[in-house]
Amino acid sequence: MNTEFHYYITYLIAARAGFKSKEASLLAYSSQYVDDNDIVFEICKNTPYFYSNYISQTMDILKPKKQLLRIYPLFHFIPGNAMSATARRKDGKLHLLNTTPDSDNAKNILSSALRSGNVYRMGIACHAYADTWAHQNFIGYYDVCNAMDGLMQKPKPNIGHADAGHSPDEVNHSWPDERLISTLTPRNNNEIFLSAAGRMFEELKRFCCPHCQQQSIEQEKALLLGDLKIIMGLVDPDERIQNYCEIAQREEYGGEKLERYDNEKWIDEAVKENVRSLKMKTAKGIFRIVNIYLTDRISPLRNIYTWKNNNDYQNSNWYKFQEAVKEHQKESWRILYDTTLKEMEIENW
Questions:
Q1: Considering the domain boundaries, does residue 349 fall inside one?
Q2: Residue 309, domain member (yes or no)
Q3: 273 membership: H or E segment, kind and range
């Protein structure tokens, strides 16, 4: 899934479930920022205010295996039930790390985040939970099970859905997954994403209203999915975003203006960047990768990062999100180790 689901749709789900507008915004921003948190910053190095974050995404899928295992299965490809009816392949292969929608592992990770009361952790867990639908039947690790047929896919590493490109993540998109049996091959993302939205709503609604009757939850879920289905069916992505923002101002969705997503907002509020080479906070694509490669090897080119306020940085959204990433990683690893990872011997994990 991309920003459209992880931020805009997630906000509407959270607001409709009962989160106040401010909390829903924090949850939704955290959900999307999981994908944008791909740089390790060393802030106020060699001072009492030093801080370094963990990444929850990487643009470099050729990183050491240990680093990949700490990112993909925990934040994007939660291992599910290898025997799930949704995971039936033409070649009959099974894998313990295969992602399946709404798995027990994913629900346990989300439940843990909800129990913590930390809205940043909730957003991170919602990201991972929703991705179990979009990323179903892919593995967050190097494996031939991820391979797709076709000449265009062959040069790409078989990790996650790299071979499938952006197809699994896009709203209003259909594509074939030829690895699966014929009845599962057609993939209609809107149907898949609406299923994810419905289940996420149920979990968040029960958190906000533990005593709500199931019938009431089902009725409200149907209204939410009805609104989302109409908007997600629009062809123009910009028109869809505009419609999400418009219905956010309705009372049942919080009645407040939903800001457009800005991936620099939180870090710009907290961190000052002294640019020596390329501004990393805004660098995109290959420019970011090249700059990271060069600055890792040529220290005078490294940008210098400091807190904008040494006395208050721990109250910033960026810092709170980064601490939540560390907590999510620790707790998710514990859950997955107990259920899945202890049964495996993966090199360098």
A1: no
A2: yes
A3: strand 271-274
| b/e code 155-165 from CB counts within 10 Å (16+ = b) | ebebbbbbbbe
149 belongs to a structural domain: yes
pLDDT digits (tens, 9 = 90+) for 5-57: 999 999 999 999 999 999 999 999 999 999 999 999 999 999 999 999 999 99
First to last CA, the chain: 26
Q: What is the DSSP string of 157-196?
A: --BTTTTTTTGGG-TT-EEE-TTB-TTT-EEEHHHHHHHH
Spatial neighbors of 24 by CB under 8 A, at least 6 apart, are: 11, 14, 15, 254
Q: How many alpha carbons lie under 13 Å from residue 121 in its C-beta half-sphere?
A: 19
Tell whether 199 is covered by a domain. yes
| φ and ψ of 14, to 5 deg | -65, -45
Please tell me whether residue 328 adopts helix, strand or coil conformation: helix
CA-only gyration radius of the chain, Å: 20
**DSSP string for 91-149:** T----TTBB-TT-HHHHHHHHHHHHHT-HHHHHHHHHHHHHHHHTTT-BSSB-GGG--S
Name the domain count of the chain. Answer: 1
| Tens of pLDDT, residues 315-324 | 999 999 999 9
Region label for 199, one of left (φ > 0), alpha (ψ between -120 and 50) or beta (otherwise)? alpha
* 232 contacts 193 by C-beta, under 8 angstroms: yes
The parent domain of residue 133 ranges over 3-343
Helix-, strand-, coil-residue percentages of the chain, each rounded to 5: 50, 5, 40
Separation between Cα atoms, residue 116 and residue 282, nearest integer Å: 32
